[in-house]
Amino acid sequence: MSKPDTPYRKRALGDRALSPETLMMSYGFDAKMSEGSIKPPVFLTSTFAFATAEEGAAYFRIMGGKKEAGDPETAGLLYSRFNNPNMEVLEDRLAVFEGAEDALVFSSGMGAISTVLMGHSKAGDVILQSTPLYGGTETLIRSILPQYGISSADFFAGASEDEIRKVVDAAMKQGRISVLYCETPTNPTNEMVDLQLMAKLADEIGERQGHRPPVVVDNTILGPIGHKPLELGGDIVVYSLTKYIGGHSDLIGGAALGASDLMLPVRKLRSGIGTNLDPHTCWMLARSLETVTLRMRAAFEGARKVAEYLRDHPKVKRVRYLGFLEDGSRDYEVHKRQSGDMHGSTFAFDVEGGQAASFRMLNALKVAKLAVSLGGTETLICHPGSTTHAAVAPDLQERLGFDPGMVRVSIGVENPDDLIADFEQALAEV
Q1: In terms of pLDDT, which residue wins out, 86 or 26?
Q2: pLDDT digits (tens, 9 = 90+) for 9-30
Q3: Predicted pLDDT of residue 86
């Protein structure tokens, strides 16, 4: 949604464009409107008073897509399911960080994903997806959306262009391809999806069926500092804000960002089904955006050191870290083009001896926390096959290359030498 150009939404200092890290401190908020408070207060209100009955009517016309001559450009504050000052500050800042026209926040990452997919799909449509995806997304697409007449077709994240084209041809016989959905790098195996190819295929599908499916990209794993999908071929970016952007394992939230026209049906559905985010969590996320670059860079560097240690350990079969992609391989070239030297801090590794051995290691850890989720200040580790991806059928897990001993770790901001010592003593139990 377009916003008026105000002093507190300026993105430049004269001729100098300000960086997102600087804008996170003040963009979208005017201290003069809140008693001079440097930080936005938490607007714990369900509804907002109109100056006049005419103003209220105009705001609701705008929100309902029925704007008339003389109405304001954008709707003012109405009701916290539609908009709220904390929500608007957060959405403004996320849009700046991602380079997006519009941003929407949701009650969870799955709230964002489900609202985007349902906002752009109808009964009889087909969602074309890469795989693997986060386990909750796989369940949504494969098990829940079919109950509403929305089917799916999948291709392996690392598949060749010819292999993907065969899937596209088969999917188009099922119905209209409404969305091309992918996650890159994949969770938990760190394979790469080529976003340039996704955009090319979306263009071709659009010419064939008369509707260009938006390319929707889950960017949770590398986040806003490691990967810019909207610059690489993506049309809508989705996040679990719970992870790196929230970053402290103390909130649940999600976001979707993209061009205003693509976000409009998502905005309408969010208002209709109430998947919006509450003001207090919006405030906490705006706080976290101020340090997201510092936290993520520290975690990325710590992950490099831990991954290098694990790669050389005799009880570890394989470390699925982006920095270890084989030079010249397809995934290496895609990762280099899309993310440069940003290798992230979440990766999987396979413990010798299968699930039983990996459980012994997990149970012996003292510093790393045995928990699902990722992107927090603390190191978190889990066994995806029995937790985050437990709902993924065993045959699909096998097809996706899950090893029985595979564990996923998200390195936090602890001293990496302490984490290495923790893995050293835990692996001794294997």
Answers
A1: 86
A2: 888 888 999 898 888 888 888 8
A3: 96
Quote the CA–CA distance of 365 and 339 in Å, as a whole number.
31
Cα–Cα distances (Å) from 358 to 313, 420, 426, in that order, read 14, 16, 10
Residues 6+ positions from 244 with CB-CB distance below 8 Å: 220, 223, 292, 295, 296, 299, 374, 375
Q: Which amino acid, 403?
A: D
In the structure encoding, which two tokens stand for residue 226, read together? Answer: 């490691």
Tens digit of each residue's pLDDT (9 = 90 or more) over 329-358:
999 999 999 999 999 999 999 999 999 999
Nearest to 416 by CA among 308, 312, 314: 308
Identify whether the C-beta of residue 121 lies closer than 8 Å to the C-beta of residue 179: yes
**Under a CB-based contact definition with an 8 Å cutoff, are residues 329 and 194 in contact?**
no
What contacts 21, CB < 8 A, 6 or more positions away? 293
The residue written with tokens 């709220």 in the block is 84
Give me the mean pLDDT over the 135-144 stretch.
Answer: 94
Partners of 182 in beta bridges = 217
Q: What is the mean pLDDT of residues 201-212?
A: 98
Alpha-carbon separation of residue 370 from 89, 208, 362, 373, 429 (angstroms):
34, 48, 7, 10, 16
Q: Among residues of the chain, what percentage have pLDDT more than 70?
A: 99
Q: Could you tell me which residues come within 8 angstroms of residue 421 by beta carbon, excluding any fewer than 6 positions away? A: 367
Phi, psi of 10 (to 5 degrees): -80, 135
pTM above 0.90, yes or no: yes
Measured between alpha carbons, how far is residue 314 from residues 2, 63, 317, 429 in Å? Answer: 56, 60, 7, 13
Q: Which residues pair with 424 in a beta bridge?
A: none
Peptide bond into 185 cis (omega under 30): yes
∠ CA 186-190-194, nearest 5°, is 65
Q: Which residues contact 159 (CB under 8 A, 6 or more apart)?
A: 167
Q: Do residues 105 and 280 touch, judged by C-beta distance below 8 A?
A: no
Tokens of 400: 């996706």
How are strands ordered across the β-sheet holding 406-410?
316-320, 346-351, 406-410, 380-382, 369-370
DSSP assignment of 280-292: HHHHHHHHHHTTH
The answer to whether 338 touches 197, Cβ cutoff 8 Å, is: no
Tell me if the bond preceding 214 is cis, omega within 30° of 0. no
Q: Is the pLDDT of residue 4 over 60?
A: no
Specify the pLDDT at position 32: 81
Take residue 230 and report the two structure tokens written for it: 């909207």
